[in-house]
Amino acid sequence: MSLFVTLSSGNGMKKDIYPEQLRAARALIGWTREDLASASGVTVRTLARIEGAQTIPRQTTLEALSSALEAAGIEFISENGGGPGVRLTSSPVRS
To answer: What's the whole-model pTM score?
Structure first.
């Protein structure tokens, strides 16, 4: 069983993000842990612990990771009967 954390979005909705989703998201866009750490401001060590299900991240850490990946074109898919996942959006969000 994987650890997961619930991320509250700005619109009041919550979504679960699993360590597997973080790893899959990085793979989908070809990012290393170092790339995601740089884009999110989270240390590589912390990211490795989150992806390895060794810790449950703080809300702010998860928001930083999620925001960086979403800006790079990742969409998190909730566990809605088919299981959680990630996919590319039609176009990345540009800041």
So the answer is: 0.80
